[in-house]
Write a structure and sequence with these properties.
This protein has 192 residues and is low in regular secondary structure. The protein has a single domain, classed as E3 ubiquitin-protein ligase SopA (Pectate Lyase C-like, 3 Solenoid).
Length: 192
């Protein structure tokens, strides 16, 4: 019913936040633009699935198979319970997602943060173009490559597996990285 090639159900903007989908087999599913904040997807098979622009803030993806999945422009930032809109795709600015930051005039996070858990997640061949990986712990992910990181958005607090270095672009503010990514997309569309 939600096969990415011929979905019968359109889940665009569906709110599935906090759902328990652990160990669910949903390969090649269409979950694009779905709200999956704080959803338990641990052990799930989402290989080849369409998760572009999905809100995965604070989701538990421990041992999930995301190989070949399309995570383009997905939001994998920590989830802030006190200010959930703060790190929504619409409100992203330059940020430092450290729990102790409390300046309400900036976009720094405060409150209780739930990180997106990517422990032992398989990302081999996943499309991470524009995926927001800032402040994410990727140290134990599997299949992650330099090429994938070059297309993602991150910062100096994104923790990478041994042997991988953060791209130079990750030194720029998140907002600037998003603007650069948006600019590239617009140029490609105008050339087509």
């Amino acid at each position: 019913m939600i096969d990415k090639d011929q979905p019968i159900l359109d889940l665009t903007n569906a709110s599935l936040d906090r759902a328990d989908f652990h160990e669910l087999a949903l390969p090649n599913s269409c979950l694009s633009h779905v709200d999956l904040r704080r959803t338990d997807l641990s052990g799930s098979n989402l290989s080849g699935s369409e998760l572009s622009e999905a809100d995965l803030r604070g989701a538990n993806l421990t041992n999930a198979d995301l190989s070949g999945a399309d995570l383009a422009y997905a939001n994998l930032l920590p989830y802030d319970e006190k200010q959930p809109a703060k790190t929504s795709a619409h409100n992203l600015q330059d940020m430092d997602a450290s729990p102790g930051n409390a300046d309400p005039r900036s976009t720094k996070l405060r409150g209780k943060l739930t990180p997106t858990n990517l422990t032992n997640t398989n990302l081999k061949g996943a499309n991470l173009r524009g995926a927001i990986l800032a402040n994410t712990d990727l140290r134990t992910t599997r299949g992650l490559s330099k090429e994938q990181l070059e297309q993602a958005i991150g910062n100096q607090k994104t923790q990478l597996p041994r042997g991988l270095e953060p791209p130079v672009a990750w030194k720029k503010p998140i907002k600037k990285q998003i603007e650069t990514m948006d600019g590239r997309t617009k140029r490609r569309k105008s050339m087509a």
